[in-house]
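Field reference: sequence -> structure
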Amino acid sequence: MKILVTGAAGHVATLAMPGIAEGHSLRLTDIRRPEHLPSGSEFVKTDLLEADGETLKSLFEGIEVVVHAAYVPSGERDVYSLLPPQIDRFDAEMKNVIAAQRVYRGAYDAGVRRVVIVSSNHAADWYEHAEIHARLRDMVYPTDYPLADNFYGWAKASY
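Structure field:
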């Protein structure tokens, strides 16, 4: 199976790569090259936000599954950073929504049948903060209403 992994140099993709690579052919993409490439994989440097239509089209050609793990941090260091304040993170978080839409569209146009989103829990993060940490529940259920804690989660919850 030919799998495209976006955000391939990122923390989550790097951790998942050995399992994803097992028995699959990988095309990896990110704005920077991963430190370690699985044997037989190909790397295509791509900025999902800036790539033109032809670049995106070629990125998805021949792909059977997309694992979308690309992410633009909205905080100084990570999502839990105090700076900038949450209310000032819309622009950064909107970039993640746009990147996800470009991945969905690229996959759709190329006939990719499955897209796996390595997403944050921000579409339901307030359940976690308000109830899970208080041990009032142990998981968020598909029937729960979206309860986003930031703009990115709000956009993800609305898809």
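Note: The two ends are 27 Å apart (CA to CA).
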